[in-house]
Amino acid sequence: MEVYDGLLNNNKLWHIFRSKHLPTFFKSLIKTFSMTQKSILWLTAVFFLGLTACKKDKEDDSTASKTKVEIRLTDDPCDCQQVNIDLKEIQVKLSGDTSQWVTLTTVAGIYDLLQFQDIDTTIATGNLPLDTLQEVRLILGTENTVMVDSVIYDLQTPSAQSSGLKVKIGKHLGTTLNSFVLDFDAAESVKLNGGGKYMLDPVIKLQ
Length: 207
Fold this sequence. Notes:
Strands 2, 3, 5, 7, 8, 9, 10, 12 and 13 form a 9-stranded mixed β-sheet that branches. The protein has a 5-stranded mixed β-sheet with strand order 4-6-1-11-14. It has 5 helices and 14 strands. It is elongated and about 50 Å long. It is of the alpha+beta class.
């Protein structure tokens, strides 16, 4: 009991219980406690303070293990009047899990690549583990077109709806914002085949 008494008399928590800031009723009530009751009160308070500290440490660890990533899109000049891609999803693959693709929060829609010459726009964001970003892929829909001489043509995109348009990255993610700009070379990517159809053979570089 003498050990507990020493802890209680020296501990800041107990000094708060005995301070002038407490109402007279509570100070009088605490004085009626036996030394055993005071010890139990002090140990209970320390226990709950410890739980709160552990919870905060876990939350801090969870936050520290993630980093912000954004994917941006730009384009080189092209003789076409429009090159429209139907973007559905942006997915990424990390070195820690080579079999899984992670879908980012994607700004889906129809993008005229020629609108992004000399500028770029954010098309996807997400929080990823601190790892090496191996690949990015663009999953396209079926509404892909090209305008040549004021005429709209279907733009064929083989495998773009399933396996996607893939871009090698190979960059380790840092703790601050990781921004990757994909330069979509429309002039090199749009081809007219022998059957008179326009094909998308994507040439995409990382700036």
